[in-house]
Recombination activating protein 1
Amino acid sequence: ISKRFRYDTALVSALKDMEEDILEGLKSQDMDDYFNGPFTVVIKESCDGMGDVSEKHGSGPAVPEKAVRFSFTVMTVSVTNNNGPLRIFEETKPNSELCCKPLCLMLAD
């Protein structure tokens, strides 16, 4: 059993969720002229086991299952101006589960 998201769709959705942070970063660096980009986005991919999620089906024995999650984190967003690349967003807690965006959630036995 799995739930999978298209990679490009998941990335666009994550960036749309971060729109306010990105615009605020542009304004704080006086980069209002660069609203149309191009932007450089650095992501970190990860895969982690979420432990045993066994369920008892009916009156039989418990079925052993493990949950696995593939996810990514947007680490930085930058824009290039005349002076070179300028970072307008940086994830402050890159190892936090709160900033991980799911790509695939699945159960395996």
About this structure: Residues 2-108 form one domain. The chain has one domain: 2-108. The helical segments are 7-17, 19-28. Strands lie at 2-4, 39-52, 55-56, 62-63, 66-81, 84-90, 101-108.
